[in-house]
Fold this sequence. Notes:
Elements: E1 4-6, E2 18-22, E3 28-31, E4 48-50, E5 66-70, H1 78-92, E6 97-101, H2 132-141, E7 144-150, H3 158-165, H4 168-175, E8 186-192, H5 195-210, E9 215-223, H6 235-240, H7 243-261, H8 264-268
Helix pairs in contact: 1-7
Amino acid sequence: MSIIASGEANPNNPMPVNSWKCAVCGYIFRGVNPPAECPQCASTVREFVELTEKGILHYDGKPFDVLLINGSSHRGNNTSYLADLAEEVLREKVVSYRRYNLSEFAINHCWCCYSMRDNACRYPCRDQLDDMPAFHEMVIASKAVIVASPINWNNMSARLKDFLDRLNCIQNRYLLKKPGLTEGKVVGLAISGHEDGATKTAMDIYLYFQQMGFMLAPFGIAYRIHGAQFNTITDTEFLKNDPLVIQKVKGMTNNVVEMMLLDSEKKLKGHLVPVCE
């Protein structure tokens, strides 16, 4: 449940009061500007968005190459910076892309319809009540997906897990003996974390895409974070001044694009045998 607080305005210089929502925890603040720190979850001002009437996300049907997903609960922190670096490469290579920060969208838990009966899990998804159906269409329409993820207790974020769980309706087409919609596409991963947790998290994420016929780009996993001995408040500044994170994430993105340009999706169509559960 959202908590609403009010900021003070100068009575001698009245300004329009806006409503700001923390995209992490849902806290709502009313004031001219958002607070420097969320009093409920301690997120920075970067996580506040102006509260406006917002409808369900829709895909406009226009073709594009890369779907870039920031799977963090924080839209403006370390994982977001990794997504920023990926964006730079996509712009430099003049590759069409769309970026989404999952914290800004409504994605329900998977209803697990397949546990009722196999053919109950279908595409289009039965749950048309949130933003996920538009993401389904974009995963299918794009040629490649790049996912940036934090590590939350040795795994991906809960938001990203919900997003990936909801892709089951696409993967389940194979079990229903229907034509696949994603085989031969390319995926790349950027993880904000240390090697042990980053490798595990990357492979946990990749398993979802592998089950849908995606191919991991060569050198398609990039990871980097500040040392565990440092206070996390210093992580962002470190990353933005670290040449290694730039090299890794930009290199991974370059590799995704080069793999995508081989047009493997078109060349492999009709030649693959789905091996998934």
